[in-house]
Amino acid sequence: GAVVSQHPSRVICKSGTSVKIECRSLDFQATTMFWYRQFPKQSLMLMATSNEGSKATYEQGVEKDKFLINHASLTLSTLTVTSAHPEDSSFYICSARTGSSNSPLHFGNGTRLTVT
Amino acid sequence: DQQVKQNSPSLSVQEGRISILNCDYTNSMFDYFLWYKKYPAEGPTFLISISSIKDKNEDGRFTVFLNKSAKHLSLHIVPSQPGDSAVYFCAARAAGQNFVFGPGTRLSVLP
Q: Do B95 and A44 lie within an 8 Å CB cutoff?
């Protein structure tokens, strides 16, 4: 099956620093990847849609200058949390589709970010 | 405005019995639905899907039922196993749109 690898799985950083999270599709090419954030006991909230070779599309309320998304190739998208603050602490998950919009999303294992 | 609702935050079922997880939606344009299973500190895993042209889809122990008139879908797991204990999310989308996820239901299968 389609495999999406997300790294790191866990990161602790100091307030004011930046953190980069990588999302790779290991055995397929993903023209579109998605970045989600999950708060405790809440659903997955779509942050942005990452399109290979073009700018990401951000959901309403998501600061694009704070959450930088780069989709440099068909197998890699990165999310950089810039000038992290404790309120950015959360579980971030990426996903990718293998084909058309009717294809299920395949998720990475997520990244637990803790900002101290 | 929550377009996809899972009104039961948790559910406990005895091993071997049937688990029924429910999901309601408000957007009549939704035409494709997915169920995901999520263990703690892991990403969701795709379980089963159904499109609006069907009212039932079955895959092994998992069956999804769709009632379009009621805007309701359900996931049946039978027989339930302890390894099924996880959080289950339903997701829905309209054509050309992104998936919208429900808040999830935590299933506990008791041995």
A: no
CA angle A63, A81, A100 (to 5 degrees): 75
Residue with tokens 């055995």: A27
- pLDDT, tens digit, 9 for 90 and up, residues B55-87: 999 999 999 999 999 999 999 999 999 999 999
Structure tokens at B106: 């935590």
Query: Over the range A46-78, which residues count as b (16 or more CB within 10 Å of their CB) and which as e?
Result: bbbbbebeeebbbeeebeeeebbbebeebbbbb
- The model's pLDDT over A5-40, given as tens digits with 9 standing for 90+, comes to 999 999 999 999 999 999 999 988 888 899 999 887
Tell me which residues of chain A, numbers 24 to 53, contact chain B at a CB-CB cutoff of 8 Å. 34, 41-44, 46, 49
Q: Evaluate whether A67 touches A77 at the Cβ level (below 8 Å).
A: no
Question: Across chain B, where does the E strand assignment appear?
Answer: 4-5, 10-14, 19-25, 30-38, 45-51, 56-59, 62-67, 72-77, 86-94, 100-101, 105-110
Q: Write out chain A residues lying below 8 Å of B103, CB-based.
A: 42-43
